[in-house]
Amino acid sequence: MEAKSTTLALEARAVPRVWGGRTLAQRLGLDCAEPVGEVWLAYDENLIRTGPLAGIPLAEALKMLGPRFIGRVPYEKYGLELPLLVKFLDAAEWLSVQVHPDDAYAHTNEAGSGFHGKTEAWYVLAGEGEVVYGLREPLEQDTLRRAAEDGSIWDLLRRERVGPGQVVGVPAGTIHAIGPGLLLYEVQQRSDLTYRLYDYGRPRELHLEKALAVACLEPTPLVRPTPLPGHQKEVLLAAEAFVLERHFLQGRRSFKAPETSFLLLTLVEGGAAWAEGPLGWGDTLLVGAGEQVEVAGEGIFLAAFMPSPEVLAACPPGLRM
Question: Which residue is catalytic, options 49, 190, 196, 246?
Answer without folding.
Answer: 196
